[in-house]
Amino acid sequence: MLTIHDKTFVPFIAARDIQQRVAELATQINRDYHDKQPLMVVVLKGAVLFAADLFKQLTMPCEITFLRVSSYQKTASTGHVRQLLGLSEPITDRDVIVVEDIVDTGLTLGDVCDQLRESRPASLTVATLLFKPEALQRQLQLDYVGFEIENRFVVGYGLDYDGLGRNTKDIFVLSE
Ligand code: IMP
């Protein structure tokens, strides 16, 4: 059991199962990119632990970089945009793998992919550790998915509740 602030979380996905699944995803990526030099673009902060474990198991020459997504900024024309901050590498003509911790509504990842595509990468795929299909609000192509989960709030292995709970090897779910 894990207590963060006023909430109680119970075990949900064990570290062993996470590591096993990450190894399977790495095998797929190694196969798909064996003749390429991909650039992993990691969406901070939640995806850091997943990305590190995945990256260690890639066998082709590959690079890693990071970006942060600002919360929504209001604009007069489009209503809302999320800004991508901190991306230091050019991605034009690169084979980009976006690495995310969780796809919930899909709005964050959708914005990230739309904006990255404006820089004309050679290809763009998405690896997400977790996916909540029931919460999805926009169509997205998810190429590498660790676990499909029900629409419940989870923490651990990078995912937080109000800043805390990222530093565990297992994933926990909010107790009902
Ligand atoms: P989306 O735009 O709704 O897909 O939200 C994605 C972001 O919301 C993730 O990158 C997480 O930071 C956060 N998020 C969504 N669901 C959870 C959860 O169950 N636990 C922790 N963070 C979550």
Describe the secondary structure blueprint for this structure.
Blueprint: E1 2-4, E2 7-13, H1 15-32, E3 39-43, H2 48-55, E4 63-69, E5 73-75, E6 79-81, E7 84-85, E8 95-103, H3 107-117, E9 123-131, E10 144-148, E11 154-155, E12 171-174
Parallel strand pairs: 3-4, 3-8, 8-9, 9-10
Antiparallel strand pairs: 1-2, 2-12, 4-7, 5-6, 11-12
Bound molecules: inosinic acid.
The site of inosinic acid has 15 residues, from β8, α3 and β11.
Commentary on this structure:
By secondary structure, the protein is of the alpha/beta class. The chain has one domain: 3-Layer(aba) Sandwich (Rossmann fold), CATH 3.40.50.2020. The strands form three sheets. It has a six-stranded mixed sheet with strand order 7-4-3-8-9-10. A four-stranded antiparallel sheet has the order 1-2-12-11. A two-stranded antiparallel sheet has the order 5-6. It is globular. The chain starts with a strand and ends with a strand. The relative contact order is 0.22. The structure holds inosinic acid. Inosinic acid binds next to strand 8, helix 3 and strand 11.
